[in-house]
Amino acid sequence: MTTKREVEIKLRVGDLALLLGRLRELGATCAGSVHEENTLYDTSTRDFQRMQAILRIRRERAARLPGQARRRGKSANGAGGLITYKEMVSGKRGTGGGKYKVREEIEYRVKNAARIERLFARLGLRRGFRYEKYRTRYRLESFPELDLDLDETPIGTFLELEGSRRAIDGAARALGYTEKDYIAVSYLELYLAECERQGKKPGNMVFKSKNN
């Protein structure tokens, strides 16, 4: 189990090929790509939502690298997973001048995610928003303590930077972004905003497939 203070931002990626080229120019190394299935849980009275906190179960399986054909693999039922609890520092969104998202984060890896889901149900926790993404992890030698995660989602592609404020700002500038490009909200919030923009009823943020 790990506990840490998470400082992160998202950056919208308009041109994936251009971003991948910039990462190569900066000497970024790729640590692999996975397909994620994420499910948020809450109480019947939405206590976590009111606290601006999340409780999540994530399942991962290996995927092809960005730029290649993406497809959902077989169901991850019975596989291991990652339990994550996040809570806003001081209960305020955008702590850190509004530019960054700062949260306390507790993570715990489990061997059987299905058992944890059954436990959550017994505790009265309810499944909520479900979302998918393909995540590719990168590392930059010039910013060794910074996590760079390229997320391909049903609502677009984003680069998530997590680390110190100084490292985030430095890497963002090196990649051609400014502070005006910083996004300090969750994927749920981004998804709801996109649904509103398109006049669509919100559901789950999942990729379309023949099985859906």
Verbal overview:
- This protein has an eight-stranded antiparallel β-barrel.
- It is 22% helix and 41% strand.
- By secondary structure, the chain is of the alpha+beta class.
- It has helices spanning 16-25, 47-50, 113-122, 165-174, 187-198, and strands at 2-13, 29-42, 53-62, 81-88, 101-110, 126-140, 143-153, 156-162.
- The chain is globular.
- The protein has one domain: Hypothetical Protein Pfu-838710-001 (Beta Barrel), CATH 2.40.320.
Outline of the structure:
This protein has 212 residues and is of the alpha+beta class. Helices cover 22% and strands 41% of the residues.
Strand content: 35-45%
Number of helices: 5
> Which series of helices and strands comes N to C?
EHEHEEEHEEEHH
Which homologous superfamily in CATH is the superfamily? Answer: Hypothetical Protein Pfu-838710-001
Biggest sheet descriptor: 8 strands, antiparallel, barrel
> In order across it, which strands form the biggest sheet?
1-5-4-3-2-6-7-8
Shape: globular
**CATH fold type:** Hypothetical Protein Pfu-838710-001
Measured as a percent range, the helix fraction is: 10-25%
- CATH architecture annotation: Beta Barrel
Cα end-to-end separation: 34 Å
Secondary structure: number of strands: 8
Output mean pLDDT. Answer: 90
How many separate structural domains?
1
Detail the poorly predicted runs. 90-97
Helix-and-strand structural type:
alpha+beta
Rg measurement, Å: 17 Å
- Level-1 CATH class name: Mainly Beta
